[in-house]
Amino acid sequence: MAYKLIAVDMDGTLLNSNKEVSSKNKNALKVATEKGIQVVITTGRIFTSARYYAKLLGLITPIISNNGAYICEYHRNNVLYENPIRNYELKEVIKDIEEEGMYYHFYGNDTFYTKELDYTSKELYEWNKEQKPGDKINIEVLENPLNFIEEKDPDIYKLVVIDENQDKLKYIRQKLSINDNIEIVSSWSNNVEVMNKGVSKGSALKELCKIFNIKREEVIAIGDHQNDLSMIEFAGTGIAMGNAEDEIKKKAKYITDTNDNDGVAKALKELVF
Q1: pTM to 2 decimal places
Q2: Predicted confidence (pLDDT) per residue in 237-269, tens digit
Q3: Cα 152 from Cα 170, distance rounded (Å)
Q4: Whether residue 129 is found in the same domain as residue 148
């Protein structure tokens, strides 16, 4: 098969447990691009975070961020697709979460909003200290997110609830799932992620293939978690990481090594090189 596009997830896939890209993975993506294959970063992260890694890898690539709600060619700031959460729905989701007293944050393409610096927002706050001005992620701590949304009417692509209590996470997911106008997935064991209805990595990848005139049979998608399932099912060749959830492994055509053992590089060596 002559592949034309490789969609690769970041956390748990391209990045190892230290949030680093190994030299073998970096070189494999470089070789793929030299062969004329379009490499696409596909992540649940905010766009500016994904852009940092694209620049680090030296990739000229469209970035699918926010679980598929925002696609942009970062090198020329060209937005190819966006699908924000309707602000009415966002406010209803926030009300439900605040009733349970749970941590949450939400973001657009370049700004991260939270009521408190904890979990991911705290990690990004510390990460910013080591970054150049152009690579930092804007973080805004809001006293009243509902008022902010009402007054500013921002474009928000994703909201994340985080809690270590699995029972609380299960309950809030069930509570939010009553709303038919939102999409709910998870990218880690301790979170629940909310996007606009119809948003997914798979739907974004389908949109990108239309733009580039690429057939799904010519696509490889590599991931490890529930939010990667849609793109693994869409791609002609779906690959699960060795550290992937069982559900992802069952749906994938191939299973590669773990993210700490250069699983991306090994998969591409086997199937592409």
Answers
A1: 0.96
A2: 999 999 999 999 999 999 999 999 999 999 999
A3: 31
A4: yes
